[in-house]
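tool_call predict_complex ligand=zinc ion
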Amino acid sequence: MRIFQCDHCGQPVYFDNGRCEGCGSLLGFLPTKLMFIAVGQRDGGWSALAQPGLAVQFCLNYTHGACNWLIEAHDTQGYCRSCRLNQTIPPLNNEQNLEAWRARKGRTRP
Ligand SMILES: [Zn+2]
Ligand SMILES: [Zn+2]
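tool_result ok
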């Protein structure tokens, strides 16, 4: 498992960490920078704590707990690069599919 760092406090974070264990910030993976960034709510959306000018949004699969990747706020596609590349997203209204989807995402490497 590749280890990243929280860009807010420097704490090492694992790829599937949802929150930094050091500063408690919510974390998301920003593939355009290949790093985890700590985000906070700002103006009804999300932005990077370390770069308040960087507005981001969570991938639509974040609401299913299946993805913690970020996309830039102006991106209208809704899904992150990883989810967009995945051709067969199962219907997630079924618990079994959801588990399988999460497990498969866990094996995906950037
Ligand atoms: Zn932190
Ligand atoms: Zn995604």
